[in-house]
Amino acid sequence: MHDELRDAVCKANIELQAQGLVIHSWGNVSGMDRASGVVAIKPSGVPYDDLTPTKIVLLDLDGRVIDGRLNPSSDTPTHLELYRNFQAIGGICHTHSHYATIWAQACRPIPCFGTTHADFFYGAVPVTEVMTAHEIQDNYELNTGKVIVRRFADPDPMQMRAVLVANHGPFTWGATATEAVEAAVVLEQVAAMALGTITINPEQEGISQVLLDKHYLRKHGKDAYYGQGDTRGG
Length: 234
Known about the structure:
seven-stranded antiparallel β-sheet, globular, L-fuculose-1-phosphate Aldolase, alpha+beta, single chain, about 15% strand, about 40% helix, 7 strands
């Protein structure tokens, strides 16, 4: 049942470890088949070395398990809330990667200082508001999704494929599970570069709007002209 989706989500989760974005069993990737409404996600607490496609759990958007013997990720309600609200996405990734989590713990957006950042993210990577005690104590994982959705009342989630949950860590997404992991890899890189930038020059200002537009829009959108029809490169 949904073997291709399970295989893709399993490979995307294993890629997190290969890219050095996770330790132990922390982090998770999901993918969604929009046509059938089925979500595939990593099982909770299973080490990446033990992960196989058959262990990936299938659910519907209400969180009901369709197929799978293991418990889905504890972050499943967050993933489902994003799928319900961001209609264009088909994959979600959550990590506690080192540099992106530093910014999340500081409750600071990651400024767009240069073109490396602008090639992928259209502006500063946003941070959510700090969750209230009530949001934490009651339906914590669902409310994590809700604070992300509230933060994206304005930005287009397909132009800004990442968010920092305050005091927690990053979530990224894309059209597929593979693209969600790609966004997590890029996010970690620009988070490290931004930290280095303000270490050298604490007064450094962000990139100009004209340079941001040039670098982002030449790779993304209807007038993109970079590459050979695939806008994801460098």
